[in-house]
Amino acid sequence: MDKLVKRVTVVQGSGDNRQANVVFKSDDDDDDFEGMPGPSLKGIEKAVRHMLKAQVIAAQDAYQRHLDSVEKGGRSWMYDAPGNFMKARRKAMKEMRKSAPFGMPKMKFDDDDDEDDGD
């Protein structure tokens, strides 16, 4: 039988004496089309993985900067917190920009003292 045929049913009789018998039933009873390939999600999965990795890097960097600010003593951690978060976010954006399949715009900041590239 052809792959398009999923099931063959023979109906015998008429009226109240009707009887249906399944003569052929294919092994795979899926409703999807076998000849049609699904969308390739490999690139999207890779981009999502890299974005999650960038978020982890941002969280780790922000936490380390917070610990360094706390070691200074006093209330310096409160004054350093906004800058620490912005620097951690900048580091995460650099990581995301490296891995984005479609390219991400470079973020411009006033104080780019942490930049590794010599622009």
Reconstruct the topology from this structure.
Blueprint: E1 7-12, E2 19-25, H1 42-72, H2 76-99
Antiparallel strand pairs: 1-2
Describe the protein's architecture and organization.
The protein contains two helices and two strands, in the order ββαα. With 119 residues, the chain is mainly alpha-helical. The protein has a domain at 42-99. It has a two-stranded antiparallel ribbon. Helix 1 (42-72) packs antiparallel against helix 2.
| Count of β-strands | 2
Low-pLDDT stretches are none
Question: Structural class, judged by helices and strands?
Answer: mainly alpha
**Biggest sheet, in brief?**
2 strands, antiparallel
Distance between the termini: 66 Å
**Rg measurement, Å:** 30 Å
**Residues in β-strands, percent:** 5-15%
Shape: rod-shaped
| Helix-strand pattern | EEHH
The number of helices is: 2
The residue-averaged pLDDT reads: 78
In short:
The protein has 119 residues and is mostly helical. Helix content is 46%, strand content 11%.
Q: What characteristics describe this protein?
A:
119 residues; mainly alpha; rod-shaped; two-stranded antiparallel sheet
